[in-house]
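Priority: medium. Attachment 1 of 2:
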């Protein structure tokens, strides 16, 4: 779980650990022990996080992918209290894992389903991550289905539209994956596109 979610403070770490079914009914001192054990295994870097990351990145992504293959709902219990920084890390790692040839595309559908199950928390972040990742199709599929939902409020679509960048190689020229209506918002239109051969390079992995 610590591969999928960072913790910028002890309070964030405690909320994360308290959301895990195995620790939800445990006393604070037990969660403190687990937090300390994780930090000892993966010492925090100078950025102030409670624990560090598994390195190199591709190893962390493969490890996360294997866990998500066994339990696609692994992140669900902690999402209601997750911060936007944490959900961005979740979708970034999950998207990169889903793109690894090792998994043969088996994680792409579960990633789309995760966004749909928690669209109130994840849809906006999915827009942000989709324009930065190398393989945005699972996120684009989820956003297309969110936009095509006849029950979604116009205001919710406008919130998504406001997160779209004015200029993006990823979004430019993509046709919609489904015939959704475009809701104008600040000069942007909410058109969720298919994968393009051009993309905005993501941050380099170690």
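Attachment 2 of 2:
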């Amino acid at each position: 779980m610590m591969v999928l979610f960072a913790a910028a403070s002890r309070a964030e770490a405690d909320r994360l650990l308290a959301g895990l079914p195995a620790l939800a009914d445990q006393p604070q001192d037990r969660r403190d022990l687990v937090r300390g054990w994780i930090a000892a295994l993966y010492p925090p870097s100078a950025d102030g996080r409670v624990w560090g990351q598994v390195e190199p990145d591709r190893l962390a992504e493969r490890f996360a992918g294997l866990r998500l293959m066994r339990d696609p709902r692994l992140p669900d219990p902690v999402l209601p209290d997750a911060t936007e920084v944490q959900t961005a890390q979740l979708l970034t790692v999950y998207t990169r894992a889903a793109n690894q040839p090792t998994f043969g595309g088996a994680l792409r559908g579960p990633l789309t389903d995760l966004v749909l199950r928690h669209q109130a928390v994840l849809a906006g972040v999915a827009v942000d991550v989709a324009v930065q990742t190398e393989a945005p199709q699972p996120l684009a599929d989820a956003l297309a289905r969110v936009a095509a939902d006849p029950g979604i409020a116009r205001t919710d679509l406008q919130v998504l539209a406001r997160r779209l960048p004015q200029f993006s190689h990823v979004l430019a020229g993509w046709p919609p994956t489904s015939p959704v209506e475009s809701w104008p918002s600040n000069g942007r239109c909410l058109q969720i596109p298919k994968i393009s051969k051009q993309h905005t390079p993501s941050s380099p992995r170690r």
